[in-house]
Structures are given as structure tokens and as C-alpha cells.
Amino acid sequence: MTTEPDPSQWRALGSLAQVGMTFVVSTVLGLAGGYWADRWLGTSPWLLLLGLGFGIAAGFVNLFRAVRDAEEREGPDDRH
User: Fold this and answer.
1) With contact defined as beta carbons under 8 Å apart, do 45 and 38 qualify?
2) What is the pLDDT of residues 10-39, one digit of tens each?
3) Which of 24, 28, 25 is nearest to 52 (CA)?
């Protein structure tokens, strides 16, 4: 009695999961890089905050690229 979702729904779910994971990973990498640079140069907390900002910015850039790619895949006929 259950219906199987079509492959496009699975693809959309995978794309959303990928964007979410990329956002988290880029933020953590920026934070870790800033922390490491602060420990090395003794500039705490400035490079940590700078790395965090760059990580978050990279996450948003990837989010906007994913949205643009999804819109291009959707095509002009499928938009509501």
C-alpha cells in the first residue's frame, strides 16, 4: 500500500543533505584553521573569528550555487 517516491525526490533530498553537510564542514574547517593560526601566531581570538567568518561565507556561497544549479536543472517550463 505504500508508494515508492520517484528518483527526483531522492535526488532533491540528496542535494539538500549535501548542501547542509558542506555548510557545516566549511564552517568547522574555517574555525579550526583560525584556531590553529591563532595558536601558532599568538593572535587569539582574531584569526579564529576571521576563519569562522570565512567558513560561514564559504558555506553561503555553496548554498547559493546549489540553489542556482537547482533552478537551472528545473528549467523555465517547470517554474510556477
Assistant:
1) yes
2) 887 888 889 899 999 999 999 999 999 999
3) 28
